[in-house]
Amino acid sequence: MEDLQKLAYIPLKQQNNRVWRTYGGGALIDKWKKSPREVDGDMPEEWIMSTITARGKGRPEEEGLSMLNTHLGLKSLKELVDSNKELFLGEKLAKKHGTTGVLIKMLDSNERLTIQVHPDKAYAKNILNSNFGKTESWYVLNKREIDGEKSVVYMGFKEGVTREQWRGYFLSQDIEGMLNCLHKIEVNPGDAFMIYGGVPHAIGSGCFLMEVQEPTDYTMRVEKVTPKGLKISDELIHQGVGEETMLDCFHYDNYSYEEAMKRWKVEPKVIDSSATHNLKSIFNETHTDCFGLKELDLDGEYTIKGNDAFYVAVIYSGEGSVECNGQEFSFKQGDEIFLSAAINEVTFKSHIESKILLCYPPS
Prior knowledge:
- Strands 1, 4, 5, 16, 17, 18, 19, 20, 21, 22 and 23 form an eleven-stranded antiparallel sheet that branches.
- Helices cover 20% and strands 35% of the residues.
- Strand 17 and strand 18 form a beta hairpin.
- The chain contains eleven helices and 23 strands.
């Protein structure tokens, strides 16, 4: 146990952690990881610093759990956190949640995802007996055309949509009818969106994005067959609560396109810059208290002070080193690095110009 706790004072890199989903994709994750093969398949997500497992029957028991490379061998993040929650997570987070409170994913789709919704905290507590809902965010990193289709997302009910109408489309499996109820938004790298619990949505084909979310895998789906023909089990449709209760997960608020964009599209803001760095806030406490995301563009060095909470650095591009407690550790594109609450300060130094995504737990 004491040996495990020594790991709280150094940056820890995650082993690759691909997860099966009901949709296809993943080639842009391979490209980001500089894999010799860039192929689409049924593992289109990379889960980062996860202490939860993915839902779905017949899947490996610990699929989704993050494993960290350490000098003591391969250790799960869950094992480390459980060894001393206050040390690894930070005192406030340990007392309030007892877990990381956040889940980070890289997601690459080569088909439209099914139309879905995630629970808000009230629904999660009352119906699913969970302390966390699944408010999430999308930060678009790259895109590609699939079969001539531009990259889009669908989000929120248009004006005039009712529960009765939505229920009718679901029961008849009128997919076009359901898609036409949602706002369709073309996306580009740098676009950022908040998807609060209860808001209907779907990610279109060709989107490569970072998703930062509450740490659950609860998804309610209204399509019983994916766009490419995979039949979805009842469990993955309604998570065991039944179809009528599943329909209660949606918030039936209506918005014009302009109102929807104002409510859910986020404009990143520069919070610190110099000749060698540019630090932007993407998601912060003005959008949600569930998580935070910053982006550091670095051509030199930049020091980050600890604030009694862990955070995660995802290296989107570049390479360099990170100085921590008198030691130097290398980083490169594709690395995912856990920095515990016990670390008071680190300095990132880029040897090749770098883009570093900094992910934070609940405030």
